[in-house]
Amino acid sequence: MKGREVLAGRYEVRGLLGRGGMAEVYDGWDARLSRAVAIKLLYPAFRADADALHRFETEAQAAASLNHPNIVAVHDCGDHDGIPFIVMERLPGRTLDDEIATGPMAQHRVRAMLEDVLGALATAHAAGVVHRDIKPGNVLLTHDGGAMKVADFGIAKTAGAALTATGQIVGTMAYMSRERVAGAPASVADDLYAVGVMSYEALSGRRPYPQENPAALIRAILDDPPPPIEAVRPDIDADLAAVVNRSMGADGVGTKFGSALEMRSALSGAPDVQYSAAGSTAANRRPSTKVLAQPLAPSAIYQAPSANYAPSANYFVSSAHRRPMSRGRKLLLAAAAFVALIVGTLALALDPSSSTQSPQPVSTSSAVPPPPPPVSSPPPSPTSVPVVDQPPAPKKPKGRGNGNGKKG
What we know:
- The protein has helices at residues 50-64, 96-100, 107-126, 169-173, 178-181, 188-204, 214-223, 229-232, 238-248, 260-266, 298-301, 327-349, and strands at residues 6-7, 11-19, 23-30, 35-42, 74-80, 83-89, 139-141, 148-150, 273-275, 281-283.
- The protein is an alpha+beta fold.
């Protein structure tokens, strides 16, 4: 576009800011609101493609629906004399790519970038929008350079678009996953992979796949995983290294992140947090099993059983929480012991072999548990102990007695 054309009687198109896979971005001015804007115009080659026009409009509307502080806001979209356009928030123009060009970034700065970008992607993915072109050139810095914002959601790239733009194959394909290069459709996992590649580049100052030749680049992505980030940045902390390696599949485990929120949480070690004996939390990287220096305190392991616990769970808390024995249970046990004693005595008395032996007097010095109160039928009286072959009674001493048959 030449000159300062006004779109829709409102947006003045000024100088060119940059080019993407299927559109170019211009500096602009919103005459109605008196503010600077960025205007994206679809390339002329796509303006006659009905499918491309439909995707441009649909995905522009999806991007406009996203509301997040780390997403470049989309203000408007429309068509001016057959030229589809999108009006976006205008930022200074400095990108993450410009910052990486100055050399490897500090770890805290990369962490801040990951927080911003993953927060933006979490919102986009929740709304069903896949970016498909995450790279340093699409991450814009704010005016103060502190925060970063993601641009070009679902607009700068469609299937095969990068292959039609000269000079865009290497810049885009360098951030594609092996699945995407092999022909699979773009997905959330591809966005997260690209974030990992971008982080690798920010930490090392170079791309993990630096090949300039498209065929060599494709071969490297498919067959040659990059070395772990700690091999090129030895001072990197373990949590950050684990996130970068896992997102790219360079950790040897093969389990990538399922969402931007999961990846963002892993940045702080949240997925594998364990409690130490002192009660503080610590990140526990894979393998998840961790051997502690000392046993956990009992209070950190066991809790008082709730109503949802089975009664038997009480016995796994402590002996102090065991259920006390009821009085009825005690009486029942005592009755059972007494009956057992009576049965044993009867068995001994009825044994034929006992008739040849002198009977042994029953000792009254041993304590016999008292019988419980009768429940249905009273047990035999404890004073009436059956004895077989009673020995001859001793002679009665002279004096008072009960010889008259009456009780004395």
